[in-house]
Amino acid sequence: MSMPVYGQRSNANAAPECPRHPGVRSVDYCKRCNRPMCVECVVPTEVRSICVDCSGRARRPISRRGPVVTYAIIAACLLAFLVGFGSNSAYSAMLFTPGLGLAEPWRFLTTAFLHSGIFHIVFNMVALYSVGTVLEPVLGHWRYAFLYALSAVGGSAAVLAWGIVEPATLMGGTVGASGAVFGLFGAVFVLQKASGADTRAIIGLLVVNLLYGFIGANISWQAHLGGLITGVLVSWAFLRQGRPRPGVTAKSQQRREVLVTAAMGAAMLALIALIYRVIFEVVG
Description:
The structure is a single chain. The chain has 284 residues and is mostly helical. 61% of the residues lie in helices and 4% in strands. A two-stranded antiparallel ribbon has the order 1-2. Strands 3-4 form a two-stranded antiparallel sheet. Strand 1 and strand 2 form a beta hairpin. The termini are far apart.
C-alpha cells in the first residue's frame, strides 16, 4: 500500500504491517527510511519519529576520523615507555603500587601506559591495535575511551584486592596495558554474543591468554581478570542502555547514557574505597 496523500480518507485496516512485527498494523512511517512502524517500533524525536533500526544507526555512527583514541593510547604508551626508560623516578611514580594507591590515586590508571620491556610493549600494542581499530568505530570514541580507562582501573583494583590474600604484594609494582586490553576483549565477546555472532574465537583467545597469565612468571593474572570483568560489565551496560526504546527520544536516551557512565565510574571508586577499608581492617 502506498502512503496516503493529503486529503485522502484514512483507513486503519488498510495500514501496512510492521516489517519487524508481522501481523501488527503500523501507525506511522519512519522519517528517515520511510518504512512503516508499529507502536513498539516508534522512537519519537524532536520532529516526527524514526524507527528503532534508524535510531540505533544514528547513535552508532562510524567515525570518518578513524580509531583516533586507539592511536592516541598507543602514542601515549610509547611516550611513557621512553620517559620511563630515561627516568627511573618517573617510571616509579607512574607504576601501580597498591600500598601507595590511596595517597597517589593516579597510579591506578597511569600504570596501563607503562611497560617493562620491548617484548612487553610490542605484544600489548599489537593486541591493542588489533582489537581497538575494530571496536572503537562500533562503540564510538568516548565510550571506547571510557571502556579502556575503566578496564585499566578495574585491573589495578583486582591487583589491590589480591593484597587481602597476600599482603606482601601491597608494596609490589605492576605495569602494563594488558588489563585494559582484556577489557576490550571482554567487550568484543559481549557485542558478538548480543549480535548472535560466533564467539568461539574470542572465547578461545581469552582462555589461552588467561591460562598463560596463571602459568607464566611475573604476569599479573589479577589485572587480566579484573580488566576482563570490568570490560564485560561496562560494554553490557552500554549495550543495554543504547537500545532504542519506544517513547524515549534520542536526546533523552543520550542523557541517560551519560548518567549511567558517571554511575559506573562512581561505582568503581566506591569499590576501591571498600577494598582499602577491608585491607586496613584485615592487614592493618
